[in-house]
Amino acid sequence: MASVLVYLDHPIVPLAKASRELLTIAATIGEPAVALGVDSLEDGVAEALGEYGVRQIYVPENPDLDKYLVAPKAAFLAVVVEQASPSAVLLDNGFESKEIAGRLGVKLSSGVITDIVSVGEDLTVMKLDLAGSYTVSAKVTHGIPVLTVKPNSAEPRVASEPTRPEQVKVAAVDVSAVNAARVTGREDKKASTRPSLSEARVIVSGGRGTNGDFSAVEAFADALGGAVGASRAATDAGWIEHSAQVGQTGQTVSPQLYISAGISGAIQQKAGMQTSKVIVAVNKDADSPIFEIADFGIVGDLFKVLPQATEEIQKRRS
Amino acid sequence: MHTAADAPLNIVVLVKHVPDAQFDRHLTGENHTVERSQSILSELDEYALETALQLVEAATGDASAHKITALTMGPDAAVNAVKKSLQIGAHQGVHLNDPALAGSDAAGTSLALAAAVRHIGGDDGVDIVITGMASTEGETSLVPAQLAERLDLPQVTFVSAVELTYDGDAPVLHARRDGATHADTIESALPALVSVTDQINEPRYPNFKGIMAAKKKPLHTLSLADIGVDESAVGTSGAWTTVESADPRPPRGKGVVITDEGDAGVQLVDFLTTQKLL
Ligand SMILES: Cc1cc2nc3c(=O)[nH]c(=O)nc-3n(C[C@H](O)[C@H](O)[C@H](O)COP(=O)(O)OP(=O)(O)OC[C@H]3O[C@@H](n4cnc5c(N)ncnc54)[C@H](O)[C@@H]3O)c2cc1C
What we know:
The complex is a heterodimer.
Chain A (H helix, E strand, L loop, with lengths): L2 E6 L8 H13 L1 E6 L8 H6 L5 E5 L10 H14 L3 E5 L2 H14 L3 E8 L5 E5 L4 E7 L5 E4 L16 E5 L11 E7 L13 E5 L8 H9 L3 E4 L1 H5 L20 E5 L5 H4 L7 E6 L12 E4 L2 H16 L1
Parallel strand pairs in A: 1-2, 1-4, 2-3, 3-9, 4-8, 5-8, 11-12, 11-13, 13-14, 14-15
Antiparallel strand pairs in A: 5-6, 6-7
Chain B lengths: L9 E5 L2 E3 L7 E2 L4 E2 L4 E3 L1 H16 L8 E7 L5 H10 L3 E5 L9 H16 L6 E5 L9 H10 L3 E13 L2 E9 L3 E8 L2 E5 L11 H7 L4 E4 L1 H4 L7 H4 L2 E8 L7 E4 L4 H11 L4
Parallel strand pairs in B: 1-6, 1-8, 6-7, 7-13, 8-12, 9-12
Antiparallel strand pairs in B: 2-5, 3-4, 9-10, 10-11
Helix pairs in contact in B: 2-5, 3-4
The structure holds flavin-adenine dinucleotide (FAD).
């Protein structure tokens, strides 16, 4: 059986859910192998990958792939593909991964498909187009398929028998020969104790209607164990950081439950959340477009509705 | 390529004519391509054009010598994206229009655009190619990275700030890139490919003067033969991916809407309980 190469930029233990999903998908279409973006394996990562049936871990000898933007990582991955001859390459759907995928596709003369929500055994994939309004079935017809898969596309499942992955060192890519921009500084964002937007089962988002006060949105998110999102109006105003933005130019999310509070539901906001399983909207204005797609809509003041709901949940739990 | 601090900048901005998201959008035809009546200049490309204008305005040297070319690829109507760009402030327009381009995927698109950029650059080359972060309909974000790969340019992509400084006579591009977990500062020599997010600036609108001036600006139409690209390398015949089927998703049914009469929070919790979401 051919290998399926999964690119994991910098895996740590416990493995991120999105990584476990990619490994699970890889195992359904072949024998999972992993290529890393960093030159050393952190403690426990090999064992964790082994639980998902990974046979080989390709590790670059370069300590410096991260110091340049995208191009050297794509060059490294092309070398691994040549060595491993996989039947497909899987990456996550983050913007850096999509860029690596794009460049890899050109290097390999391979078709690239992004925003995938499921991968079939014959490598036919499903994706949603035009802001989730179409379901599209597509296939790579040339080269080794390079596929980027959205989070929440598979239920992570460990292999029936764990493997002991072999570590394969890959000769260093000559980064000075690759025409790439240098990363001169990196600022880590402070880690939140809440689940990440892309992986959360529940998201509570606030918009301009919060008027800058996200406390009711945050308290409700915490009562539900969810993540906090926002509209662009809220992030542009600086009330919450840009990485919380949901929508066309923010994150596309598809949680079990999306609660929209004080958000009108402009097309660009809908584009990022309308594939959520259940949508709840709280808005003062009964004519807001968000009510057209809400499963449960409340015409009301978010500062009254959310705290009451938060209190009710706490009451029922105690 | 221009290197001296006072040398004029030669910038190409990619602009795309896309269906207006305010209307219902459709996939049509055998190849399930996007239906393009009611199309506009992609809003995300307005940020790219604004970036080019600001870089030129901040640059040293003879302001009238800098050149911004708005480049589009697409059928006849796509020229509207170029015309709007000329009204906003681009100096010249180029429309790559060839029936053989229909049905191109990202690979074919980046191949044709790379050849067009080379053609525009001529012997001196282009200093900066600027694009939006994604098209508003395909949304793959593949084209900027693939274009950088094909032109062998450093990619300075997905950036929310960009500035040009000079180290002696050598131009250096500085940029900021925001990710979910960290933000990077980036540096690159020229020539380079830049893609910008909607965080980078506030695009300006065309004014009356701009609209009048645009009528006199040069607008060239190129065919594949003009840029030396073989028909078989693009369009459906050159595509490396295929769409097998495309089905409109059933619209979300409108749910229950209640008006808060003092107990909506409690009703919300009841709803979440019946949906097994608690
Ligand atoms: C190129 C481009 C890309 C974009 N990308 C995105 C994107 O990714 N994500 C995104 O969200 N937007 C995006 N937008 C912006 C989008 O068009 C809207 O402007 C934005 O979503 C509006 O945010 P909002 O709903 O919070 O604000 P508004 O439209 O101002 O709506 C605020 C709502 O809050 C309600 N409200 C006020 N007070 C209360 C209260 N106390 N209780 C309850 N309700 C209240 C009001 O009735 C109103 O409906 C983009 C726009 C462009 C042009």
